[in-house]
Prior knowledge:
The protein is built from seven helices and 18 strands. The chain is globular. The relative contact order is 0.08. The longest helix has 23 residues, at 364-386. It starts with a helix and ends with a helix. A hairpin with a 2-residue loop joins strand 12 (262-268) and strand 13. By secondary structure, it is α/β, with parallel strands linked by helices. The chain folds into three domains: 1-152, Ribonuclease Inhibitor (Leucine-rich repeat, LRR (right-handed beta-alpha superhelix)); 201-277, Phosphorylase Kinase, domain 1 (2-Layer Sandwich); 284-428, Transferase(Phosphotransferase) domain 1 (Transferase(Phosphotransferase), domain 1, Orthogonal Bundle). Helix 4 (308-327) packs antiparallel against helix 7 and helix 5 runs antiparallel to helix 6. The chain has helices at residues 4-8, 167-170, 243-253, 308-327, 364-386, 397-409, 420-428; strands at 17-19, 40-42, 63-65, 86-88, 108-110, 131-133, 154-156, 177-179, 205-212, 216-222, 227-233, 262-268, 271-277, 284-285, 330-331, 340-342, 348-350, 357-358. The mean pLDDT is 95.
Amino acid sequence: MNTLSELSAGKLKGAKRLQLVEEITEFPSEIFTLADTLEVLDLSNNNLSDLPAEFACLHRLKRVFLSFNQFKHIPEVLAKCPALIMVAFKGNQISEFALNSLPKHIEWLILTDNTLSELPEDFGNYTQLKKLALAGNNLKHLPTSMANCTNLELVRLSANNLIKLDDWLLELPKLAWLAFAGNEFNKAQCLTKSTLKNTPLKNFQLKKVIGQGASGVIHLAKAEHNNVAVKLFKGSITSDGYPLDEVNCCLQAAKHTNLINVLSYIEQSTQLGLVMELIDTNYTNLGLPPSLQTCTRDTFNDGCNYPIEAVYKIAKQMANTLAHLHDNHVSHGDIYAHNTMINDQYDVLFGDFGAATNLAMLRIYQQQQIQLIEVRAFGCLIEDLLSTVSTADKQNELFNKMSDIATRAINTAIASRPNFKALIALLNDLV
């Protein structure tokens, strides 16, 4: 993190990245001294409500973070920034999104947790968009022009007021990660019926925090006879939607060998939670989350190298798990290596239902389309894993066969993709 005093003193000359958190209410003009070098500007967690007309002189700026400020509109000067491809306004009070407010070449837009009731009718002009986060707004419908955003890969629409799911959205050729729980047409009113018990939080002794995500905090906890993992949700809404939808999807998913085992749930007036089997310490994350550069695709530690046989074993388990979820009318919405755990034998445990959605109320066509959207995410996962395979393994016939399956799964002609049961058959036939 940087300071205004450093900037004013010229100590940040030539900086490509700048982050300031100093309760700023007016855009600091000193930032313009970095116009020839600045590529990433992070002014989140301040008190800004507008940007000056001169902002466009930051001609090398690629990414701007303005989350958790006081913006009520999207400043139209952003549209004049020649290199800008990413804009983040999470947690503001934005209710106004005027025509032509953003550069046409924008690739990544974050508007989570604002008060937008509609998107501009020209939204379809943003044809280069890959990643769009709109959860936690007041949207009742999406502009039909958005069907032109054919490069969209990840879309978050949970916790809005949408009255229906448009077919054109499910027909976007590159869409792989979609979340839309908690809207007017599918908002959960209560927990789904389950054979699992509602266990009071007082029954557990919380020992330490062992994990934390967008939706909640996971604790190592002492139960009556053993240790368990207790996930306690942070509040009424998360970056992916409502905690109630996540809990419901976990319960609806039921048991599967490769799903993290849910033992019970916690439903109290002030707290919602899940009680899960403690994962063996031999398990580690299969990958790392996407970076600013990869946008929608996972990353891996330097030197990460998965044998082709391991990729095959992981793929078989994931295909079976995802087929099971869709048989139970659940879409995961976040099929990624970073949400997948493996042990030394490449046994898989899959979890994190924060972006999951109950599909039961949708038409059969829409359920089928959403499964094929998730097939593309599966294909991306396999493709990413194959990128870690050694040069020697790439000469293996199995590598070519797995590459072919990944290619089929990510086919932009959606109807040509195999569903998960067909993928299972294809994988079983490989060896």
